[in-house]
Queue: 4 jobs
Job 1
Amino acid sequence: MLDAATRARDFPALAGIVYLNTAAEGIPPPAVGEGLVQYFRDKQLGMDGRLRHAAVHAEARRLAAELIGLEADDVAICSCSSEAFNLASLALGLRAGDEVVVTDLDFPARVTPFLQDGCPATVTVWRSREGSLVNDDLVALLSPRTRLVSLPLVSFYNGFRAAVPAVAEIVHRHSPALLAVDITQGLGRIPLDRDSGALAGADLIVSSTHKWLLGPHGGGIVGVPSTRRDTWTVPAGGWFNIHDAFGADRFERAESLPGAASFAVGMPNYPALYAIKGAIEYLSGVGIAAIDRRATPLVAECLSGLRALGVDLLSPTDPARLAGILAFRHPRADALHRFLHERKIHVMHHAGRLRVALHGYNTAADVATFLQTLAAALATV
């Protein structure tokens, strides 16, 4: 991943293209496909395969827990981040008068569960300024009625990177609220383990698996610190998440397992778990810190190039406030996107915004080619 030989071996699909769209879809290494094949082989064993499925499930949870600085018992893997946030809303048991704070840099999955007609809470938006969330602005939004603050570690929209410990300190000092952090746009790209301290103070941690983690669809990592197990216990029907689901009193009562375990409401998505295990093993073998050291200078170089081209940046201009994403807008964004794509340069385009994402498999040549081609596009469209 970090040199020409391993890049060609592990990511042959990148030959001949400049792929800068990991924030939407990661390119999986062979270990992910091998995991899916192994699942099929184990599934052919029928019920005997369940023992192997369970072992892979346990190992995937352990590996995911290491990445985010928790113990395996504090991590569950559900179907996606959207499911996780809907279950989190259910766990909170929100009532009329309760308040939820979201940000204008949030992905819809973190916001829409609290905007449904069935949710009685009031939603308040923490609005960014010049592409950044200003922590002092949050204080005025908090009150004794605030139950939840939802925060993206890295914004899908413009790449702004939040300082979770600082936000957590404000949330917990000024309200009884819990802090939920979506790490989808950072997991696999920047160090988030216990030593990094990057997630200190978070009360709920959620991530998708098909982006920077380079895994499959159908996975949602949920982390609940042991001190918050009772707080985040989901009262959802199921069987995998229920204490003694087949007991003699099973038609009289249902008791959810505490904490993260309550987010795994049904039969696990074993194909995804095999693939997730393979993805994490691959990235851990490369080293998340090594990936960060490789990609961070590329982000700074790309940021500098975009500023020199005079585009309307949506991202913060301080590289320290970024992880792997840069974004800008243009009145002819659709034409720019088409120009780039015709030249096999892959970026995200949505509603006048172009987004660039740089991971460990990207190179200085990728950045140079993108900037040169973008300059040509700006002079043409």
Job 2
Amino acid sequence: MAVSADPVHIPADDAPLMERIQANAKLAMKRMQVPPEQILDLVSQLGIMFETGLNLSAALEVLERQAGTPHLSVFVGDIRRCVEEGLPLSQAMGRHPWAFSPVALALVRAGEMTGDLGTMLRKVSEFMERDIGTKKKVRGALAYPAFMAILAVCVIIFLLVNVFPKFADLFKDAEKLPGPTKMFMNLSDFMSAHGTWLLPTALLGVIVSLTLIKSRKGREIFDPIWLKAPAFGNLIKAVAISRSFHVLGVMLNAGLNVLEALRLAADVAGNNEYKKLWNQCRMDVEQGGDISASLMDNPLVPPTETAMVSLGERSGTLPEVLDKITKHHEKKVDGAIKAFVGVIEPAMTIIMGAVVALIVSSLIMPMFSLSSALRG
């Protein structure tokens, strides 16, 4: 089956909702066809071959031939054809924004400008490896609560669809049913009557909700709330600081100007509040200020980190300082993940147990009432 190599159009935040949903579906499909780990291997091997003296077109041809999947082969082939047509590698990679972040493209552009593309490709692979590792840690932390939530929903649906209808005849002669029992009986009847379209409607509702939450307006509303959430907020802060400071240090080490580095730090922060912080910092620097002065007294960045940035600016060792801050916050990410899991596991267990207990008790209470009436 032929695989399209056309670049996926990423709509603006003010685009129609259905257009954004379709674009997100295409992006998800592309990332399933060519996962980030394969792209990381591709960049790593390309950098090694380029540094050993193989020209770019030949290196890409080798990678295309040895690609393990048809999707990866078409993906690499599109980049190779663009390079052979005269486009710089950064522009060829830029045709696939779902695969290469703005940071990766900026590093490749810097390598093309300085003539040190091999070194920059190595930096891109290091950045991607760290970024993929961080995302895996966060997804791992969210896997348990997601599993418990899905399990709870499945148990509730099973009880409502398969158990409650069997008690309907038993309870129909009861003069008065408890409130929870009546509510669950009505919900059971509704699900039995409309179950065929209920699941797809619920899935569509989840997709629409996630799309709206990820929109510009949704991020403005929800991102400050996530930061204040118990345990989860600390995890978001640790990840945002680690990613932003890492990108800032990598960009400055690569020779990019500080304004471009700050713009990219804002892009990768992952939270709208941190994005606004770095954008404000960029405007302050543009007007002659210091990075540390913009971060001073801001609750989003710990005072110790701000003091270290100030020291780095004064001593001319800012990239090295930023690297130390990044490594420190990577450890904080691990600690935040453990704290989050430590809070969410018992909470999800208690919530699930309480819901199931409420459903079961709503069946048992009327049965006690009926047995008491029969004895009377």
Job 3
Amino acid sequence: MRIRILPEAERDLDIGCDFYDSQSPGAARFFLRGLLDDIDGLLKHAGVHEQYCGFFRAISKRFPFAIFYALSEDTIDIYAVLDCRQDPVAITSRLGERSIDRETRS
């Protein structure tokens, strides 16, 4: 199985890095390493997480972020990496947009 981080999820990671870097220089590197470790952990645990808005949702171990992913036969597609401190309506809306994008990729 392989992991594919889609462009919109990469943008989410960039936004998170920008936020943590604005809080403390160097914090972005720690944030990114932590989230990428969580994403790598999906190789072992993909599919065991609860589903939310049509995606599996894995909660980061170190940060208030969730990784939203889908499974295919041989790939774990990361669709979003979102800050859980956002308004739940905004999260649902963003995932809805990405769900539509997911359908067009299939």
Job 4
Amino acid sequence: MNYHTSRRGLLAQLIFRLIGEPQISAWTPAEMAADLHAAGFAVREDSGMADWNERFAQRHASVDRGQHMRIGVARK
């Protein structure tokens, strides 16, 4: 799943709401892991833009704008 660690600025929130994707929550990786665990899932991986930049772009990508985005992989 994709989740955010902080809320975006007001303009970005408005734009996302207008396209039907309102940002209503934010979690830390620990909070997301706890919520998933409570629902019976085990987190296999949790990574963010800096991780993806290192893994896939050899640190050549600009990731400053996406620091709040994370992807978690969990299994039930």
